[in-house]
Amino acid sequence: MNPLGNGLTDQAPGDPAAADDMLASQPVGYWTGLAHTTVTGQLRDAMARIDATQPQYWVLNCVHSWPAAPSREEVAAQLTPLADGPHEIARVVDQLLHRQWLRADTGGRLHLTDAGEAARLRLRALATEVRAVVHEGVGDEEYVAALKVLRTMVANVRRAEGVS
Fold first, then answer.
1. I need a surface site. Which of 1, 25, 42, 131 has the fewest CB within 10 A?
2. 96 and 60 in contact (C-beta within 8 Å)?
3. pLDDT of residue 104
4. Using an 8 Å Cβ cutoff, are 43 and 127 in contact?
């Protein structure tokens, strides 16, 4: 019920125990934040058990998928929006060079070593296992619908802020 009488659903505080009929009043930020923290924590904990990090996986994948060997700066530009600060990706590149999962050629271009490719494949398999746990009971159509809703909400906020 909307006590404001304006056709809008009143905002309720985030509540993980909210009944289904109350979910429309739940704040999306609460739920997206909780999902992010929970899922990311699960993935990072699993990766830590094999002495790796999610940002290392990002860098390995980025170097692997780049059309030509990328520079440190190109990798950092691509991944910094995901990172925990502006210097994290450069540090991860250094870690992976030290670990010999990456090598830099004479032009400073980054390449996966055999050990780096093996690590990337191991991390991909682990991420796939974690994804299966996260997606249990959620069909592809439901998942796509949820992401479309979130994509629309992001676009709405960006449009309201004048950001494209």
1. 1
2. yes
3. 97
4. yes
pTM of the predicted model, to two decimals? Answer: 0.82
pLDDT digits (tens, 9 = 90+) for 97-125: 999 999 999 999 999 999 999 999 999 99
Q: Are 59 and 96 a contacting pair, CB within 8 Å? A: yes
Taking each helix axis from N to C terminus, what angle separates 54-65 and 72-79, rounded to the nearest 10 degrees?
120
For the four alpha carbons of 69, 72, 74 and 80, in that order, the dihedral sign comes to positive
